[in-house]
TrEMBL record:
The lineage of its organism: Bacteria, Bacillati, Actinomycetota, Actinomycetes, Pseudonocardiales. Belongs to the binding-protein-dependent transport system permease family. It is found in: Cell membrane. Residues 94-287 form the ABC transmembrane type-1 domain. This is Carbohydrate ABC transporter permease. The chain crosses the membrane at residues 20-39, 97-117, 129-152, 158-180, 266-287. The keyword Transmembrane helix applies. It comes from Lentzea sokolovensis.
């Protein structure tokens, strides 16, 4: 028989649990509210932006801001709606963002996995010293390496190319190598010894045994890398200002500068920002549950 579950009376719920749920609710609201307000502003007519700036819902919701950002309206219609007449070549910049984000995510995750496995299992002279230097790089702020990387990319003639945009971060990052190395160390050696007895070599061990067992950590690194590269702004701004390599974050900054008014085109900017966030949101919705299931399967806590 299925046991009958009884609810705990409200007076018997521990205060610690109530405080934890309250804190969680406050954190959730604080996290979601900026995104909600961005969408609300995008749905607000420019003429009502300041007069209708208190209510949680816009009084006269409209999709005109999305249409004019996407270039689906004429300049006269865009200016009549309170915009500047500027538009974003959204599909082109979306494709550029996918290329930039995809190259970094796929190549970096793979290279970090190989490096992490080498530090975890292989023995070679100076291994611990090299790993220590790599971990020390975590303490170097990225802004310190910005100028040397820019000079290097410029000297190579890679400005306004995807090669120059992804060069500083496409191979590996210290945190990802450290994270994956710690997971590889937790894999029982008996599994690899059994595979060796079956005739599996070094490359086969990594590709056929270790990687299938590491789906959770690899998905974690892949998602964090994808989100970071998708929202990156400063480096693509310096190295990819050309139309053929411009990503969405840079395009939104240029869209803001194109406003001839003294005030930025906030409604259009929020509409463009909402469209920019949607791909990452869809990615998290479809892969978030799989990520949790993979982590539970691999025993990551």
């Amino acid at each position: 028989m299925t046991p009958v579950r009884t609810r705990m009376p409200l007076g018997q719920i521990p205060l610690g649990r109530i405080a934890a749920w309250t804190l969680l609710a406050v954190a959730a609201v604080a996290t979601i509210f900026p995104f909600y307000w961005m969408v609300r502003t995008a749905l607000t007519p420019a003429a009502d932006l300041y007069s209708d700036g208190v209510g949680l819902l816009p009084e006269n919701p409209t999709m005109i801001n999305f249409l004019r950002v996407l270039g689906l309206t004429s300049q006269q219609e865009a200016r009549a709606a309170g915009g500047s007449g500027a538009k974003v070549d959204f599909l082109r910049y979306l494709l550029n963002s996918f290329v930039y984000c995809g190259l970094i995510t796929i190549v970096q995750t793979q290279c970090c996995a190989m490096a992490g496995y080498a530090f975890a299992r292989l023995r070679f002279p100076g291994r611990d010293l090299v790993f220590g230097v790599l971990i020390a790089a975590l303490m170097v702020p990225p802004i310190f390496t910005l100028l040397p990387n820019f000079v290097l990319v410029k000297n190579l003639g890679w400005l306004n190319t995807f090669a120059g945009m992804v060069a500083p971060s496409v191979l590996m990052t210290p945190f990802a190598v450290f994270f994956l190395r710690q997971f590889f160390l937790s894999i029982p050696r008996e599994i690899e010894e059994a595979a060796t007895l079956d005739g599996v070599g070094g490359w086969g061990m990594f590709w056929r045994v270790v990687l299938p067992m590491s789906r959770g950590p690899l998905l974690t690194i892949g998602l964090t890398t994808a989100v970071w590269s998708w929202k990156d702004f400063l480096w693509p701004l310096l190295t990819g200002r050309d139309e053929k390599t411009r990503v969405l974050t840079v395009a939104l900054g240029i869209f803001q500068q194109q406003s001839p008014n003294t005030q930025p085109d906030w409604t259009g900017l929020m509409a463009g920002s909402t469209l920019t966030v949607l791909p990452v949101l869809v990615l998290l919705i479809f892969l978030g549950r799989r990520l949790v299931e993979s982590l539970n399967f691999t025993g990551i806590k």
